[in-house]
Design goal:
about 180 residues; alpha/beta; 5-stranded mixed beta sheet; binds zinc ion
């Protein structure tokens, strides 16, 4: 069985047992998560997310790059378009009142293995190599705080809160580094 056959078989299983159509593209928990592409740290699994609950952007390190800021802006625009085209306030019946943006970094992140590749990192962060120290490549506690500060430095729509969490790949637990503010 090749990978496509394997995944197609799993999809048929999903479609016949778990699938339920979702009424809106708006995340039911009013939450967007920025996380690393590392297969060990999939927010869907480690945070127990259900289909439709959160929007998730994943890249190397779960880092807030200029590209991620552009994607957040696009998702906000999609949310505004969806809200104005739907008859009622989408997702307003959910358990969360504000919209949350969560930066989720993790221990033992592969991006630390690129510390010597300053050229790659400078391109990724769209920043001069001389400022890479501010990105805390090998210090995930500081990188969470730095990325939350970076998002907070940009204008956010009213009612949005930004927070930062750290996932430990050794014990499966997340720790709040920056509470919602
Ligand atoms: Zn990682």
């Amino acid at each position: 069985m090749n990978i496509i056959e394997l995944l197609s078989e799993r999809n048929r299983q999903f479609a016949s047992t778990e699938f339920a159509p979702l009424p809106s593209l708006m995340p039911q928990l009013k939450t967007m998560i920025i996380a690393c592409a590392d297969p060990r740290v999939n927010p869907t699994h480690v945070l127990g997310l259900k289909p439709g609950e959160t929007a998730i952007i994943r890249n190397v390190g779960g880092r807030v790059t200029p590209n991620v800021l552009r994607e957040i802006a696009m998702l906000q625009a999609i949310g505004r378009a969806e809200s104005s085209s739907s008859s009622g306030p989408s997702g307003s019946a959910g358990p969360v009142s504000t919209f949350n943006l969560i930066v989720l970094h993790h221990t033992d992140c592969g991006i630390a293995r690129l510390e010597a590749r300053r050229d790659l990192l400078a391109t990724f962060f769209e920043t001069p190599e001389s400022t890479l120290a501010e990105k805390f490549i090998s210090d995930p506690r500081s990188s969470v705080a730095a990325d939350v500060a970076l998002i907070s430095a940009n204008p956010l729509p009213p009612g949005w809160k930004v927070s930062g969490m750290l996932y430990d790949v050794k014990n499966g637990l997340v720790e709040t580094i920056v509470p919602p503010a």
